[in-house]
Write a structure and sequence with these properties.
Belongs to the plant acyltransferase family. Keywords: Acyltransferase, Transferase. By secondary structure, this protein is an alpha+beta fold. It has two domains: 5-162, Chloramphenicol Acetyltransferase, CATH 3.30.559; 182-341, Chloramphenicol Acetyltransferase (2-Layer Sandwich). It is 29% helix and 20% strand. The strands form two sheets. It has a six-stranded mixed sheet. Strands 6-10-9-7 form a four-stranded mixed sheet. A hairpin with a 6-residue loop joins strand 9 and strand 10 (320-327). Helix 8 packs across helix 9 (215-231). The longest helix is centred in the first third of the chain and has 18 residues, at 57-74. The N and C termini lie close together (10 Å).
Length: 352
């Protein structure tokens, strides 16, 4: 359904205590230096809790501001994040019945491809009759999902000690997002479908060290196989390829380097289907309680990444929601794949 969001205020949240002098400057590790400037995000949807004393939007907003202020004193690289308050003219339960990723991006404090240097930003939106959604974006250079959900920043914020920054030639990675026409769809797999897929991908051989795949491993293999089948990108085992002896002889440095160069060339030509998987399963995503109860749903919004698959636990914990970003042409073929639809829970595909 269409979402109308009106921004009514902006605030800058400061740490509850002054940052020590020796922590004023945060040094990125070499790995973070060369990584693209990517903003991750999460949407937390909360219903109105009749038993909570924090039912007014002002009370909830004050609680969030206080929580962020105290958190910034502990996680100093995130200090100085802005809080945006907005008001949406719709009803939470009505929205959850018609979830559209393209509309959910309006609950985020900024566009995900903005040239934004803020490490963390938060937008709090209120629905009619009291439901709210918190949209959070954070720079992946500074924080990952693990540190975000578990509040364990010791290793992440001290990674420059393990991977010292380099002062060599300047490298400016792109943002990791393109201008392709991306479609995102949400597919839900219940526990019985996941158990069936795990059984399909399990080995009966006792010699195999890991005979049974995890839920995410089984679903990853299944999604990848259905994408290959839908886009007709499967390899032909009967096809013969000519070996260019002259080319091989001109590269005495070794086969590994040749293989790498060939792989890069195939990627550039689009001959290889690259699919990136990331999982937030088993993370305490539904434990984010600011004093008015736990989220009713954890969602995502349209991303600009092509061929990205993200796994979320369902609220009950026994199923998995899969958010898939594909080019529109590939999605049109993938979403009607009969074998895929045989495992997807009925009526659980979000149409964007």
């Amino acid at each position: 359904m269409k979402v109308d969001v009106e921004v009514i205020s902006h605030d800058t949240i400061k740490p509850s205590s002054m940052t020590p002098l020796h922590l004023r400057h945060y040094t990125l590790s070499f790995i973070d230096q060369i990584s693209p400037q990517i903003f991750m995000h999460v949407l937390l949807f909360y219903p109105r809790d009749a038993d909570s004393y924090l039912n007014s939007f002002a009370d909830r907003q004050d609680r969030i501001k206080k929580s962020l202020s105290e958190a910034l004193a502990l996680f100093y690289p995130l200090a100085g994040c802005p809080l945006r308050a907005s008001q949406g003219k719709l009803y939470l339960l009505k929205f959850l019945k018609d979830r559209k990723p393209s509309e959910q991006i309006k609950f985020l404090p900024h566009e995900l491809d903005d040239d934004n240097e803020l490490p963390l930003a938060v937008q709090v939106s209120v629905f009619n009759y009291g439901g709210i959604v918190m949209g959070l974006t954070f720079a992946h250079k500074v924080m990952d999902a693990s540190s975000f959900f578990f509040n364990i920043a010791t290793l992440v914020f001290e990674s420059a000690m393990i991977f010292p920054p380099e002062s060599g030639p300047t490298y400016n990675p792109d943002k990791g997002t393109g201008k392709d026409k991306i479609s995102i769809k949400r597919f839900v797999f219940d526990s019985s479908a996941i158990a069936s897929l795990k059984a399909n991908y399990s080995s009966d051989s006792s010699s195999v060290k890991y005979p049974s795949p995890t839920r995410v491993e089984a679903l990853s293999a299944f999604i990848f196989s259905r994408l290959l089948a839908a886009t007709h990108a499967e390899a032909n085992p009967n096809k013969c390829y000519k070996v260019d002896i002259n080319y091989v002889n001109s590269h005495p440095e070794g086969g590994a380097n040749i293989t790498f160069q060939l792989d890069v060339e195939r990627l550039r030509k689009g001959e290889v289907v690259k699919l990136c998987f990331t999982s937030l399963c088993r993370f305490p995503t539904y434990e984010a309680d600011f004093g008015w109860g736990k989220p009713i749903w954890i969602g995502s919004a349209r991303l600009l990444f092509k061929n990205l698959v993200t796994f979320f636990d369902t609220k009950e914990g026994n199923g998995i929601e899969i958010w898939i970003n594909l080019e529109e042409e590939d999605m049109a073929k993938f979403e009607v794949d009969k074998e895929l639809l045989a495992y997807v829970s009925s009526g659980k595909i979000s149409v964007d």
